[in-house]
Every structure is written in C-alpha cells, then in structure tokens.
Amino acid sequence: MSDAERQKITIPRLAAMKARGERIAMITCYDATFARLLARTDVEMLLIGDSLGMVVQGHDTTIPVTLDDVLYHTKAVTRTRPLAHVVADMPFMSYQASAEQAMLSAGRLVKEGGAESVKLEGGMELVDTVARMTAAGIPVMAHIGLKPQRVHQMGGYKIQGKNPDTADQLLREAEAFVAAGAYGLLLEGVAIETAAQITQRVPVPTIGISSGPDCDGQVLVLHDLLGLNPDFAPKFVKRYADLGATVTTAVQTYCTEVKTSAFPTAAHGFHREANQSLLPIGEKVRMRGRKP
User: Fold this and answer.
1) 1: buried, middle or exposed (CB in 10 Å: 19+, 13-18, 0-12)?
2) Tag placement on the chain: N or C end, fewer CB within 10 Å?
C-alpha cells in the first residue's frame, strides 16, 4: 500500500473491515523504535500488551506489570503518531476493584498515554464495568478465553472452550461484552471451533491468538514473530525471522572489531578542521504518510 493510500485506523474502520471480511493484523509494540518500523507495514493495530512484563522486564508472568509500566510504554509508542490503532492493556489489579478504578486507570492510558482504546481481561463479572467505561467514552476491547492475569487461578496456560459447557460460557461472555459496548474481542487460547462460533455470532471484530484461523484478525507478540527469544517456540507462534541469531552475530562481530582495533577507524570520526556535527539538531524520522 502506498503512503497516499494509508489512513488512520479508527474503530469504525475496523468494524468495516469485519463487515467486508477483510482480515485485521495486530501486533504488540512497546517502544518508539519498533513503532517507527511497524509504521512502514500494513499492520492495523498496535497493542501495548502487559506481555511487556515477560518480554521486556523479564518476569515469568504478566502479573507484576503496573499501570505506570503500561503508561510509560504507551507514551513511547504514541509519540511516533502511528496510523495504526493503538490499544493499551490494563494490567492486573488496575481495573478489578471497581468500575471507578477501571475508568480512572483507562482514563490515564487514554489522556496521558495517548491510547485510542484499552483492553481488559475478564468475564461476566466485568460486563457492567465495561458498560460504564464505554458509556463514558472509553473504547474497550474485551479479552476472553485464556486470561494470563489469572494464570494461577486457571492452573496454567490452558486452552479454553473445549467442551460444550465452557464453549457456551464463552459465547455468553462474548455477547454480553458486545451488548455492553465493547468494540472488539480478543480471543486467547480458545478452541478453534469455539473461536469460529464466537466470530460468526458477534458483529464486532474478533482478534485471535492461539485460537485458530477463523477469527477476524490475529495478534502476535512482536518479539516472538521476529525470533528474538530463541528459547520460546510454542505451537501457536510462527517465526517470520531469526533476529535473535542476527543480533548475536552482529554484536559478536562488533566485539571482535573493537578488540582488534578494526573499529572505529578514522572514517568514523571527525578531524579538527571539519565543520560537521554528529546529527542535525531536531532531525526527525520520516513516518508513514506524514511529513517531517
């Protein structure tokens, strides 16, 4: 797609994509550098996921992530003014205590962070909260199925909706969240057949991860897609590059060149008589569809 054809992705545009049967590409993003690179692609949605706890911070689960953590990374992404729709995750215990807490937390992500919607994990117990949030003008994506913030309660990362009773429960949750005003659903770890049923039943876009091919869109963690964590290779991830090996090789080559004095050379420095600066002050990165 040319720069002239690119437009800001809004919630109505996402709804229109579902109506046309056009698939939606979503990916996690936690910083400005990757946000600028992703701006050169056709990705429609950027998720500042609480997965940052595991990918960036080194935790074993997403549970330790705080609202300030997500806010920090959301600001880093939105400073690049992406054309993709920006969704900020609501971390554990930033919304469960009350609808008021949920609205205040989401309000910070939208007002301070520049997020265009928020995502929260839950079931029927959060339907009224979502209704109040959407009534207040906060766009919400509901996350159902496998809920990583409840990993201890669920006894691990287990596929959901595998029998008629649990599948029916997920269908009821999906419809209730849509009735409460959720503009989309994220289906994680849902049995393929159940994810297909939900997608067919609801009028809003469904975004799947480890939920099969029938959702309206898909999301992956950027670092998994790029192979930046070579030791993590679950069945639901497709690795499109092996940047982990590329990074290791590049840095080792750099180390070797430094130790052998192959880098830097005079070509990488500046002579006294040269009228040059390291970088022009205020130099900006050209972005997709925007002037510097």
Assistant:
1) exposed
2) C
DSSP 39-89: TTS---EEEE-TTHHHHTS--SSSTT--HHHHHHHHHHHHTT--SSEEEEE
- β-partners of residue 184 are 141
For the stretch 198-240, pLDDT in tens is 999 999 999 999 999 999 999 999 999 999 998 888 889 999 9
State the amino acid at position 82 in one-letter form: P
Q: CA dihedral defined by 103, 62, 41, 241, rounded to 10 degrees?
A: 180
Strand duo 184-188 + 140-145: pairing: parallel
| CA 135 and chain centroid, separation | 24
Alpha helices in the chain, H assignment, sequence order: 11-20, 32-38, 52-55, 67-78, 99-111, 127-135, 151-154, 164-179, 192-201, 222-225, 243-259
Find out whether 67 and 91 touch, Cβ atoms under 8 Å.
Answer: yes
Is residue 112 flagged as an active site residue? no
Q: How many CB atoms within 10 Å of residue 134? A: 16
Answer for the pair 250, 258: CB distance below 8 angstroms, yes or no.
no
User: pLDDT for 266-289, tens place per residue?
Assistant: 999 888 887 777 766 665 544 444
Nearest-10 Cα torsion for 157, 158, 160, 166: -120
Give dist(CA 292, CA 197) in Å, integer: 45
Whether the pTM exceeds 0.90: the reply is yes
Contacts of 191 (CB under 8 A, 6+ apart): 159, 160, 161, 162, 167, 211, 212
Tell me which amino acid residue 200 is.
Q
Angle between helix 164-179 and 127-135 (nearest 10): 20
